[in-house]
Every structure is written in structure tokens, then in C-alpha cells.
Amino acid sequence: MTVRVGVLGATGAVGQRLIQLLEPHSDFEIAALTASESSAGKAYREAAKWRIDAPIPEDVAEIEVGATTPEDVPDDVDLIFSSLPSGVGAEVEPEFCEAGYVVSSNSSNGRMDEDVPLVIPEVNADHLDVLERQREERGWDGALLKNPNCSTITMVPPLAALDEAFGLTDVRVSTLQAVSGAGYDGVTSMEIIDNAIPHIGGEEEKMETESRKLLGGFDGTAIELHGMDVAASCNRIATLDGHLENVWVDTEDDVTVADAEDALRSAEGIDLPSSPDQLIRVFDEPDRPQPRLDRNIEDGMGVAVGGVQETTDGLQFNCLAHNTMRGAAGASVLNGELLAANGYL
Amino acid sequence: MTVRVGVLGATGAVGQRLIQLLEPHSDFEIAALTASESSAGKAYREAAKWRIDAPIPEDVAEIEVGATTPEDVPDDVDLIFSSLPSGVGAEVEPEFCEAGYVVSSNSSNGRMDEDVPLVIPEVNADHLDVLERQREERGWDGALLKNPNCSTITMVPPLAALDEAFGLTDVRVSTLQAVSGAGYDGVTSMEIIDNAIPHIGGEEEKMETESRKLLGGFDGTAIELHGMDVAASCNRIATLDGHLENVWVDTEDDVTVADAEDALRSAEGIDLPSSPDQLIRVFDEPDRPQPRLDRNIEDGMGVAVGGVQETTDGLQFNCLAHNTMRGAAGASVLNGELLAANGYL
Amino acid sequence: MTVRVGVLGATGAVGQRLIQLLEPHSDFEIAALTASESSAGKAYREAAKWRIDAPIPEDVAEIEVGATTPEDVPDDVDLIFSSLPSGVGAEVEPEFCEAGYVVSSNSSNGRMDEDVPLVIPEVNADHLDVLERQREERGWDGALLKNPNCSTITMVPPLAALDEAFGLTDVRVSTLQAVSGAGYDGVTSMEIIDNAIPHIGGEEEKMETESRKLLGGFDGTAIELHGMDVAASCNRIATLDGHLENVWVDTEDDVTVADAEDALRSAEGIDLPSSPDQLIRVFDEPDRPQPRLDRNIEDGMGVAVGGVQETTDGLQFNCLAHNTMRGAAGASVLNGELLAANGYL
Amino acid sequence: MTVRVGVLGATGAVGQRLIQLLEPHSDFEIAALTASESSAGKAYREAAKWRIDAPIPEDVAEIEVGATTPEDVPDDVDLIFSSLPSGVGAEVEPEFCEAGYVVSSNSSNGRMDEDVPLVIPEVNADHLDVLERQREERGWDGALLKNPNCSTITMVPPLAALDEAFGLTDVRVSTLQAVSGAGYDGVTSMEIIDNAIPHIGGEEEKMETESRKLLGGFDGTAIELHGMDVAASCNRIATLDGHLENVWVDTEDDVTVADAEDALRSAEGIDLPSSPDQLIRVFDEPDRPQPRLDRNIEDGMGVAVGGVQETTDGLQFNCLAHNTMRGAAGASVLNGELLAANGYL
């Protein structure tokens, strides 16, 4: 049975990736696209400056873009994907939920709200059930599910595997993030050619809090943040796609490289259409993963790990994921699939 | 009084920077240039593929390049700057020292030898006196002084200031290093455009050991490594010059951002011709320092720090220095000036 | 019926693209790989530093690489693809032809030889028959077929279409070429970051002579160079793949943009497995084609044209093709298919 | 005697370069800075996002930015430098001229107006006198002088030298332009990393018309456009500064490389504070000039030429100039110096 879906913020960088993923999707059918007022009423082809290096899907190109309000979305749409600036998301996402829509959102607003599940399906699918509390407390027919920030998603699958096996107490992470994470106009060429920027506004805090929620326990009612101490340092570099991260973890139990790589390689996946066959790929070559060479593994939905080494208190390793696929559009689609599989539509 | 100097490995990336610094130097005069056998006998203009964005000094361009052996260097040369591949350095530097030459070397061989001073003049000039032990034990008339690796030099001045003020127990550092650090042919364009490489062979170990020697104590005879635990993760990115580093330090004493910035800003310099007026510049803007904008502060001899934040166990901050100036050629020249000032020539 | 094929120079940049194209090929089966002496005897996985952003084909990875001599290639190989440095190609390609192998070569040696067909199948497939003269004169059982240089291939399909429609008298072309055209180690990162190089050794002459041979007449015996005057100016820029070219043509007949675009769009293709559905795609948007967005049209085998404008004496336009696909590996594979379709195997 | 100057549009990319040049200028003193309404009233330090890799001049940093109206500029300012978006320039520059200010403008509005001199001092200083007609016809006490577009300035000095020596009939030019030419936000990183864009809006027409005005004759009343046919093809590439151009010229007289290089090398300069010692530097190395290596010759005010070759109808060559120095800010400053030297202040 095909689920009719809508995309809020369809013209942006993540919106375009959402369309690239949803158009050929076996279970989903694109039924509505929205954007800002200035785009409303135009054909998607006109409204979006398509910048993906694959052609714009012809049938989607002809869809008329609506404004980002529930009124502009047909009633028979069952699932909404949202990738809006957080200020806009904070305002309109609740309107859609109140109007009965189920929303899988990539927008950063509300991710740490107690009754909003923040989910990576392979990591903490059980948190989904906090939606019952959400519906009860907010009186919504719809529902709001969030995926984490792209830089958080890159490191959390390996952190989850290592936490389960050895227990994590401290995490230090330094990121080398691609420009696409800031949207099409987010980083100018004069800022980044022959340069790097050691600051991305709000990013460090997102990594520090979201990761603890994702690895936190859920007792059926409340999600308790994981007790580990997380400190992040975020950098923008001149790559187009793919966030590379250097991670140090202190572990409760003793750990060897061999045991750690075993734990990573055997991290369990989940049976959803867009989930990768192998969640974590571990490289033996010390100079991998690299953004250009490895961001597309598992169609951009895998997480690559390499350079695993023992330290005095635990481990250090590098990890990489495609920030607009695994880290954003693909994450939302996967969450939509999770909602469908669990009867939330 | 002008010191006549020679440059070993004068055609390489650091060799060219050495010439750029030495040619206008008030106290030094270039009297000999050496390179590999294939370049010997040619004019420097022919032997070197000059790639600095300032013209090749005309008088240096006409110097005939010699082979890298003591026989090809005039006797009246008092000071040798060496920037050779470590294998070559390990072989020929001792020959020069035995022949009576005083060598300020940027080559990585022998940096951790017990009787070889590894010096950043503003940090551990007192280590220079281990040269007396060196001369005695090795029977040299000459002497061998080393500067650290470029990625080590970038972080050690701030580490020294913080160690003195608060005591360091643990250091984690993630680097974003420029391609010039690998020499002209070290990184191909296909490796680095739209990419980053999370591995630089041997670099992590250099940072982990050299930093502990630089901050180590010296009792007049032996240098004791500092007891702090250092773990490094090294990355190559698409910048031309300037190594940017994200650092976490755990401190013995409590520390605030204000106290830390005070300690950094008041780090003492040294009175040598090439030393910067202010050793460490601290930025208030959270997105600084950046390689392109800040690598040239203090004529490329300063260290820039920004993003100082408190963590659970200490601090995190970013630092930056020009890797072929402060981190290599300038470091060697400064060490040469230190040798001259201390009567070793 | 499957043709068993060998690849000479299999570890290089074009060699890897050849393997990427040949491994899934419906008619060809990889039966032999050769490289330099130092690689011979190793598994391909070890011999090649695989740098394509798709995984190395597992079955090819296990093939033992041979030396580049006919003795190291099994007798039942029917077709050889060659991508060797021109000096090596000049030496060993004749040895293979003499030993009876049919060779589709991307190497630049011998392209202008009178009895060597230089072919783009959609443009001058009829030139193939000069092979009869070649076999007669050289006494070969095998045969040697060449594809042109990557920068030539990019402009010749549109030139051919315009020449047929309007007659060309003068061509001026300025190129913006990707670094992959120089091989993996051909352009260092220090040469090209924040830079462009207005010279590629021998490239201008290749474009000026090869294009006139490709558009030349063939009377069954001799190929006569086209009489048009061609002047090229070649530049290397910081793109990974895709050569972009600005072209001016003076035409014998009057020409309008509409007529020119018609002629380009209706350029006939050829019915071979790797040939594109549409040879030339014409963009209406003035800022297209762009290397990153358009190099992969028609699986990298199409030629993109845009910015068609009238000039005083004819037209100016921009064109783009994927230099290691349409311009090198794909060109050779297509030529191999042409050889097979015409009974030369 | 020091001239008090003002800068309109002082916070933009060219505005910052203007300040970098004017602050240490021997004859000029910065007395007023203006920007858009949103910046008015702020200190320049706050209003400008300083992005030059040299420190912001401390005394300029404290100047309060005014709005871009004559009322916000002190009466004792004698000379105005303008670098405004052309729409704004078209509106406010006449207001300044009417209020009595002499304006040296880099803005593109009005460059082809018959009574507006478009000047490169070394090329057509005599055109300056059309200002008398301008003042008469427009009733201005002030005056409006323009410098050409950055891509025009790069090629016109060599064109002028060749035209004088051999007579030019046709010019074809292909450009590889730096991102700074579009201003700080003009080109996004996602547009240009691993990419090139074969279109810059309006740029081709500017090159085609401005070059003919610059080389045109002036009879004391009217400027007659040069009769040569000029066709330009403009590309944006991933360089920060420095426009590189491939040029073909057809000449009336026969020409050899030696004669052409003589004509270029002996192009006369002009005796103004900011003019270079040698206007045109000709490289013998075929791979020069290159943007990163050569944009700073003569402090960014020289024009570099290389790759001079004979063609059937004339010559081809490459040229390069620093687009925000020689091509914009430096061009305006030089024009300001020309105005001062000719008694227009």
C-alpha cells in the first residue's frame, strides 16, 4: 500500500535530497511540496534551483509548490517530511500535527523536548513510543518525530555499539564538516577556499545533548539522558558532502582494537526499506574513511569507521557519514518508514 | 657581525621558505646551498622549482647548488640549516656535526634522542645546554639542534602557558593540516579536492612524544618527559598553509576561560630577531583563527588561539600557526638565532 | 558471445575507469590485467591504489596482474584495451598487434599515423577501414585503433554537427580541464588549490591536429585532414572530472542560434552498447553545462553544450564531457565495441 | 598636500581593498566611509566583516560609517571612491557629483556614457578631458570618472600595446575568473568546489564594449569606439583572487613572438604613486602566469603575460591581473591619483 507524503521546505538542499530519495521509493508517493511564500504557486522546476548531480525527476518537476501551511496540503497525505529552518519549524510543525499529520522532521527545533522522540532507527527505535505521551499531553491526532543533527548521526551508531559493549564515560569529538550541511548559500566560496572555519553556530551543543538523548534509557514514559560527558569541537572544511569526525571515548571496561572492531562490525541494523545492509563498515586502511571516497557506501546510508586505536582510557577512531543522506534526508525517510512500520500512520 | 650560513635541502618546500627568511636576515648571509646529486652543479634558479608567491631573491638564484656533503660547503660557514628527508638527515647531519658545523635542523630524525635538544626558544630555551653533553658523548666540534614537527609547534606554546598556570594532565588534539606540510609533491590534487584524509604517517606519534619532551624538565644533564598523556588525531585538508588544531586539556587546577586567556596572552616571548612581538594572540571571535585569515600574523611567526571554552575537566580551544614558517623554516631560523645568541657558533 | 579482453596499464586512473566499465559489460569479460614490472605478480587489489568512489569489483580485485608484454596475456584474449604512457605505448602496442591482438588504445602515441584510425564512433566510424591498409603495410594479424585525447573528444561531436550543417573554417578553443586528465599524480595539490595553470604540455597540438583528422575525409585509402584552422589554449583547473571548453567557430554558411541548436540536438548517435541515447545535450540555461553537475549525463558518455551565441563570423558555445569516461576509458570501450561490431575480432 | 577622501560602499570586498590601499597612501587620507542604511552609525569595525588576510587598520576601524548620501560626507572631502552595486551607483553617484564631489568610481553603471571617461591611466589618460564636456552638459561642479570592469582591465594593457604596434582587428578572450570578483557572498561554496561556471551575467558584454572604448580615439570632444571585433567567453573558477585570460588577436600587420614580446615589455607606464614600475611583465615559462603565484606582482598592480604564440592570423597569449587590486580598488585609486595630478580636485 502506497503512503502519500508531503515535503515541507522542498526547495532547500535537504528538501532536494528528500525528493531524490522519495521519488523512486517503493512505499511512498510524493503528493505535496511546500516552500516559502515566494515560491508558492510555481512549478517545482521553477521554484527549486536544482543542484544535485542527477537530473530532477520529471514528474516531480511539474508539481505545483504550495505554501507551508496545513491548508495547502491535501487531506489524504499521510506522512509529512519536514526540513525547515528551525524558527519556521517551531511555528508550523505543531500546526501540522494538530491538523492530524504525522511529521518526520529534520528541523532542529524541539529535538530535546521531553515528549518528542529523537530517533535513529537502528539505535533507539524503542523511543518512538514516547509519541503516546506526546499525543496525550498535546492533544494531537498527528505526531512529531525528529532525527538528530547530521554531525550527531555520524558518530552515534559507533558510539552506541561501543557503549553497549564497553560502557562509555567520556566522548571528545572533533568534526570536519562538509559545506552542504549549511545549505546552498550557507558557506560562501570566499570563506572556505584555502581555508577552514573552527566554529559552526550551535553545532557543538547539538552534538553534546542529542547524543546523550539518543543513547538514553526509556522506561515507557520518560527518556533519561545518558550519563556520559560529551565535548565537541566543530569545523567546516572545503568538502561538498560527508562529515568526517575524530572521536575519543573513555570506556568503563577494558577494550582492545579487535574487540572494538568486532562490536562495530556486528552492530545490528533494522529491517526498513532505506536502512543499510551493514550499518557500520570498519576499514583496515588507516587513511580511511575519506569523504569523497566513502560517503556513498550503502547508497549514502552507511556509517564508515577507521583508524581504531587504543588510548590510555579507551579508544580513538574516525567516522564518516553522508551528511545530507544518512545525516538528514535519509534519516528522515528512515524515520518515516519506522512510523509506517509501527502503525503510526 | 654577519654569520655565514648554509642550507641543506634548499630546493624543497621548507628549503625555499628558509631562503625567503634568510636572504633579508640582518645577521645571516647565505653562503652555501645543497640539494640532491641531480641538482648539484646547477644554479639555484635552475635547481629549484620556486613556488612561493614572492619572487626568487635574485642574488640567491645565481648561487651554484652543491651536493649535501660537508666537502661541498665552505669552511667559513658557521651555521647550517637542514631540512632533509629524515632518512637523509639521519645519515648526513652527523657528518656535518663531526666536521665541526653547528646544525639547526628541521628534519625529523633524532628529535627524541636524549642528547639532542628539541627546542622552541620561547618555550624551553634552557634545553639548549644539553648540547654540552652531546658534544662530549659524540666527540663533535659541531652541534645538532632540532625544532619540533610543525603540528607540534602549533600547540605547544599554548600548552606551555596553560601547563605553567594550571598544570596539564591530559591532552587530546585533532589537527586540520595544510598540504604544504607534506612538501610540494606530498599530496596530489586528486587526493584532496573535495576531500580530507584522516591519517598522516607518523604524525600522531610525533605530536605525542615531542610535546612531552618540549614541556619536560631539564636538570642540566637529562631531559625528563612531561608526565601528561597526549593523544593526537591528524588530518590533511585542502588548505595551502596553516595548521588548525582543536585541543582539549585536562588541568590539575581549576581553570576559567578568563584565567586561561590571561595566561595565554601573557605568555613570554624571547628577544631574538625572528621571534614575534606577541607569542600568542587570543581571538574573541568564536570562528577564529582561520588558516587563510590568520596564518600570517606576526609575519607567520605567531600562534593564534580562539574558541576557549571550559569543559568538565579543563578546557578546549583552537590554535593555528603557519606550518612552513612558525612550524618549520621560521622555527629553524629562530633556533639558529638562539645558537648564535648563546655562543654556540 | 562474450569477448575476452585485457587491459594494459590497468592500475592507472584511466585503467581503473576501464575496469569500472568493463566489469559489468554485457559483451566483454576481463581476462587479463597488466601493469609495470613492479606490480606484476600482485593481486590487482594490491597493485592498484583504487581511487574511484565506487567499490573495487571483487572478482577483478583477485586477478593477478601481469607485466605489459604479449607473453603475459593469454592467447584466448581477443581484444586489448591500452592506456599506457605514450612512450611505453609506442613500444609495446606494436608488439601486441604483431602477436595478433586487436588493440583499442587511449595512449597518445601514433594517433596521427596515416594508417592508424583515430575514431569517435558517432563521428567517423568509416575511418575504421584504414585498418586494412594498416594490416597490409605492417604485416599485422592484430590491429591498432586509437581514440583521441580527452580534450579533443569533448569538442569534436559538436564541431562535427556544426561542420556538416554550416561548414567550419576556423576554430578557437579555450579549455578548463580537470586534474584527473593528468593521472593520479599528475597535478599536485600545491599547484592547483586557489590556482589555475595555463599550460598542459602537448595538449594544444593534440587538439589542433586530432580534430582535423577526426573531421577529415576518407576515400578508402587515405584520411585527409580537414582544412579548418584550429587554435587551442589549454588550462588546468581545480576540478576532479569533466573538461569544460569555450569554443568559437567561424562558419562558411550563415548560422543562427536556433539552427545551430537544431543541428547539435539532432546529431546522430550509433547503435553500440556504451553509446549514449542522445549524443549531444543542449542546455537553455546560460550557466550550464558545469563540470560537477553535468559530467555524468548519459552515464558519463554524453556531450553537453550550452551558451550558444552568434558572433560576427559564426558562433561561440561551451561544451563539456567527462574526461575519463567519454574522453578516455569510455571512448576506448566504445571503440572496442565498434571493432567487435565490424568483425575485426 | 594631503587629499581628504571618502569611500562609498566601504564594507564590501572592493571597499575593504580600497581601505587597505588608502590607509597607508602618501597623498590621501580617509575622512569618510559610507555603507548601506543598516550599517550607518556603526564603527567600521562593526559594520564591515573584514576578510582580508592583513589586519584591519586600527584608526580606520574606529571611523563611524555614514549612509551613502552627500549629507553624510563632510564638505572638506575632496575625492570620493565609489564601489557600489550598479543600481545604487546609478542613483547616488550623480547626487555626489551635483553636490560638487569628484568621484572615482569602480561601479559598472554609466561606463559607456558618452561624456563619462572610462580610464586606465597607462592606456588612455587623455580621455580624462571629456570631463569638461561632462561638467558642461550636466552642470556639475563635481565629476564622474570610471575604471573598467576587472576582466577588461586584465586584457586591455596588453591589447593596447599590441594594437599600437601591429593594429588589432579581432579579439577572442576566454576568462578564468576568481570568486572575489563577485563580492563576498557572490559565489557560494556549493557552486564552485570541484566545479566551474561558464557564465557571469553581463560580463561578456562589458569586456566587448569597454575594451573598444578604452582603445578608442578621443578628439577632444567625443570618444570613438575602436573598430576591432571583440568576443568574450567568461568563466568563474575556484580561485580567490586573480583573473586569468586566454586571448587570441588578429592583427593588421605581420607579427612575430619576439616583436610582440618587445611591444609588451616596452609598454609605457605613467608616473603616479600607485602605478607599477613595469606595466606588463612577460614570462618565458609557458605555464605562467598563474593566479596564486603571479597576482601580487608589482603589489598587485602589474599585468602578467605569458604563452605568447603565433597563430595563422596573429597571436595568442595568456594574461593575468589581480582583480580586486589592479582590476578594481587599485584601478580606482590610480584614477584618483590621475584626477589629482591633472588638477580636477
UniProtKB/TrEMBL annotation, chains A, B, C, D:
EC number: 1.2.1.11
Enzyme class: oxidoreductase
SUPFAM superfamilies the UniProt entry points to: Glyceraldehyde-3-phosphate dehydrogenase-like, C-terminal domain (SSF55347), NAD(P)-binding Rossmann-fold domains (SSF51735)
Annotated ranges, domain Semialdehyde dehydrogenase NAD-binding: 4-131
InterPro entries the record matches: ASADH-related, Asp_semi-ald_DH_pep-lack, NAD(P)-bd_dom_sf, Semialdehyde_DH_NAD-bd, Semialdhyde_DH_dimer_dom
Pfam families: Semialdhyde_dh, Semialdhyde_dhC
Active site: C150 (acyl-thioester intermediate), H243 (proton acceptor)
Gene Ontology terms for molecular function: aspartate-semialdehyde dehydrogenase activity; NAD binding; NADP binding; protein dimerization activity
PANTHER family: ASPARTATE-SEMIALDEHYDE DEHYDROGENASE (PTHR46718)
Family from the record: Belongs to the aspartate-semialdehyde dehydrogenase family.
Protein name: Aspartate-semialdehyde dehydrogenase
